[in-house]
Write a structure and sequence with these properties.
The complex is a heterodimer of chains A (116) and B (115).
Chain A (H helix, E strand, L loop, with lengths): L3 E2 L5 E4 L4 E7 L4 E9 L6 E6 L3 E5 L2 E6 L4 E6 L8 E9 L11 E2 L3 E6 L1
Parallel strand pairs in A: 2-11
Antiparallel strand pairs in A: 1-3, 3-8, 4-5, 4-9, 6-7, 7-8, 9-10, 9-11
Chain B lengths: L4 E3 L2 E4 L5 E6 L6 E7 L5 E8 L2 E5 L7 E4 L6 E5 L8 E8 L9 E2 L3 E5 L1
Chain lengths: 116, 115
């Protein structure tokens, strides 16, 4: 079982619609969750971080975390063609000795295509 | 806005040669990282570095790899004898803390092509 799983897509949505991206993780001790956006050939760029159950909103973006179900999602409202990119889910977890690792574990990413 | 700077943007080398990838982390950050991304695959953690020593490394980071902070600003990744399978994008990242809420900021990457 992969540690962080995402549907590779492509997820195609029309301009102005809501794009919903999902991510599941296998390790219950995961503590921090991040969504990065990656344009083709470019580096990951942080979009959202979330640490507690519930929703976190920032502009057109909303991250949702459900630790009981071990999933985290990203909603993009009023999707724009410039949002077309691969969205990477990343997880940081507590290590066995009770400390925290700084290592980010990435999913393979979901390719989002926003159609004008 | 402060950013992580990586040089060169593209490095081409022959198999068996040594390469050094360079990074200048954000100036007040204390934690530094290297990740790599093979074309079409996910971003993978290589190593983290704090207080002039490696704090964590992955299975990928074998004896062929080393990291160094040679001065107060640069952070380097050395691959001693490159293999074809080392061809990838290498990303440097930095963060200002180790707590669960600390954010890692990524540089633009160095594309390494091993021929």
């Amino acid at each position: 079982q992969k540690e962080v799983e995402q549907n590779s897509g492509p997820l195609s949505v029309p301009e102005g619609a809501i794009a919903s991206l999902n991510c599941t993780y296998s390790d219950r001790v995961s503590q921090s969750f991040f969504w990065y956006r990656q344009y083709s050939g470019k580096s990951p760029e942080l979009i959202m971080s979330i640490y507690s159950n519930g929703d976190k909103e920032d502009g057109r973006f909303t991250a949702q975390l459900n630790k009981a179900s071990q999933y985290v999602s990203l909603l993009i409202r009023d999707s724009q063609p410039s949002d077309s990119a691969t969205y990477l889910c990343a997880v940081r977890k507590v290590v066995n000795y009770g400390g925290a690792t700084n290592k980010l574990i990435f999913g393979t990413g979901t390719l989002l295509a926003v159609q004008p | 806005e402060p950013e992580v700077t990586q040089t060169p943007s593209h490095q081409v080398t022959q198999m068996g040669q040594e390469v050094i990838l360079r990074c200048v982390p954000i100036s007040n950050h204390l934690y530094f990282y290297w990740y790599r991304q093979i074309l079409g695959q996910k971003v993978e953690f290589l190593v983290s570095f704090y207080n002039n020593e490696i704090s964590e490394k992955s299975e990928i980071f074998d004896d062929q790899f080393s990291v160094e902070r040679p001065d107060g600003s640069n952070f380097t990744l050395k691959i001693r004898s490159t293999k074809l399978e080392d061809s990838a994008m290498y990303f440097c990242a930095s963060s200002d803390g180790k707590g669960p809420k600390n954010i890692q900021y990524f540089g633009a990457g160095t594309r390494l092509s091993v021929l």
